Amino acid sequence: xxxxxxxxxxxxxxxxxxxxxxxxxxxxxxxxxxxxxxxxxxxxxxxxxxxxxxxxxxxxxxxxxxxxxxxxxxxxxxxxxxxxxxxxxxxxxxxxxxxxxxxxxxxxxxxxxxxxxxxxxxxxxxxxxxxxxxxxxxxxxxxxxxxxxxxxxxxxxxxxxxxxxxxxxxxxxxxxxxxxxxxxxxxxxxxxxxxxxxxxxxxxxxxxxxxxxxxxxxxxxxxxxxxxxxxxxxxxxxxxxxxxxxxxxxxxxx
Length: 254
Ligand code: NAQ
Fold this sequence. Notes:
By secondary structure, the chain is an alpha/beta fold. It has nine helices and eight strands. The protein is 42% helix and 17% strand. It has an eight-stranded mixed sheet, with helices on both faces. Nicotinamide adenine dinucleotide 3-pentanone adduct (NAQ) is lined by residues 12, 14-18, 37-39, 62-65, 91-95, 106, 136, 138-140, 145, 181-184, 186-189.
């Protein structure tokens, strides 16, 4: 996908990985970049606008835990303005294994509901034009950080959901791929709670191993967007971009 002249919605575009990725996206000249996030950051929005005056950058407050009907209303407003949307990026996530329900609500249900809501506008069975979904999951969805089993399971869930979406593309016209960052230096990984405090030093221990910067992650993120491969499972770790081949252990045959 050539980013120039497209319309993009980025959920959680103001986070550590999100904001640097928005910077890279804006440089490539989309027509519109619509950022949805829980908390507004006018300085960041102004900075993005200043990078490329040709790009219309807009912000709407959005909490992914709202009912799907609320999401549909917001999307209706956005589609009314933009007419078409080419790419939806779902990036909201929290890392706190003391907050079990909230982890599932944001990392899993929020992503599923936002995807479900945009289908109303994109599904070819409803006369829609199709579209592309890019879900930010995590390498912990491949192999868990077992000290945060709730977070890791929520990420395994979105990796799985995204792979199903990709296989449903012939029916819906909507393609999908996952972006799976390795440990990236952001507020998320600075300090966090393990499940039942099984490892109070989990953040420190993780950060003793090599990590990547948000800029490295963002540069590979836009490469993955540009390569636009339905069903791809991208690993963005240690400054590299690799496509992961998923091992098949079972087949439904349907
Ligand atoms: P950061 O905390 O900066 O960003 C999280 C974003 O989610 C923010 O924009 C925040 O406002 C938004 N958000 C949170 N709750 C929300 C809600 N209810 N509604 C709407 N938005 C909400 O963290 P980040 O590192 O930039 O994380 C961005 C995404 O990348 C998350 O989905 C995160 O799980 C994922 N990710 C991060 C890392 C990392 O190392 N930073 C990794 C993989 C995936 C391997 C590593 C981990 O899985 C962490 C151990």
